[in-house]
Write a structure and sequence with these properties.
Elements lengths: L6 H15 L5 H8 L4 H26 L5 H15 L7 H11 L4 H6 L5 H16 L2 H6 L7 H15 L9 H24 L3 H29 L18
Helix pairs in contact: 1-11, 3-4, 3-5, 3-7, 3-11, 5-10, 7-11, 9-10
Length: about 250
């Protein structure tokens, strides 16, 4: 990348990253949405994904702690309450637990994350650390995978309801809520990035930050595929569908 891009060119480049690298393209997701997985494999996905869901408020709190921009803190606070909940609002983490409950997983076991794959834990913590240690602009840019999230949520709702007899609409509230939340979140973050990435180096950094985040999501699916699809080697201590966790 050379030269300063216009705001429109920068947005187009960011969208290219998603078109090339977003984890909706991963073979594991194609299996998940097409109904090709068994219940144990779907359980493994939901259990491991909980690690990521539970880390989102932590990485957002890390971002907030670093900024003197009151408006940015106010906006990002809403992201935390979206996931942790506030008052009568149950939050996204609780809605994810509704999914794992519906899949027959013990809630305490899911929350403990004891059965998560080692690679899942490493990838998730790498994301939290990235937000904590890189520039504020890069931290905001890393959230821009939300540009591509609504489509994958629509795919999950349609594909999982159509293809799995052990899933019904009662476990879909997380995905339905994110159809509304994600576009709102990304509108602010995208505008922030376009306004503040004012040099070629800064623009390169935000593109690389989004690429990093796509890699975080992709690597989690690599681990799931290796452990639960092919070759099917589950690391010691990780979730095994044949054992009782519900």
């Amino acid at each position: 990348m050379s030269g300063l891009m216009s705001a429109e060119e920068l947005e187009a480049r960011l969208r290219e990253v998603g078109a090339e690298r977003y984890h909706s393209l991963h073979p594991f997701h194609k299996l998940l949405h097409s109904g090709a997985l068994n219940k144990g494999q779907v359980q493994a996905w939901a259990l491991n994904r909980f690690c990521y869901q539970s880390a989102i408020p932590r990485k957002d709190a890390a971002l907030m702690s670093r900024t003197f921009d009151r408006e940015l803190r106010r906006e990002w606070l809403r992201r935390i309450t979206d996931h942790d909940g506030l008052g009568e609002e149950e939050g996204g983490i609780e809605r994810w637990l509704i999914l794992t409950d519906g899949l027959g997983l013990d809630r305490d076991y899911v929350i403990s994350m004891q059965g998560a794959l080692p690679a899942t834990r490493f990838a998730v913590e790498a994301y939290v650390r990235f937000v904590r240690e890189n520039t504020l602009l890069e931290a905001v840019a890393s959230s821009l995978t939300e540009l591509f999230a609504p489509e994958i949520h629509r795919q999950r709702i349609a594909g999982m309801l159509e293809n799995y007899d052990f899933i019904d609409d009662s476990v879909m509230p997380y995905f339905r809520r994110r159809l509304k939340q994600a576009p709102r979140d990304v509108a602010f973050a995208l505008d922030y990035v376009k306004q503040n990435a004012r040099t070629p180096d800064a623009q390169t950094a935000v593109v690389e930050a989004l690429t990093f985040k796509c890699n975080v999501l992709w690597s989690q699916l690599d681990a799931l595929y290796f452990a639960y699809v092919e070759p099917g080697f589950v690391p010691p201590g990780a979730f095994r569908p044949e054992e009782t966790h519900g």
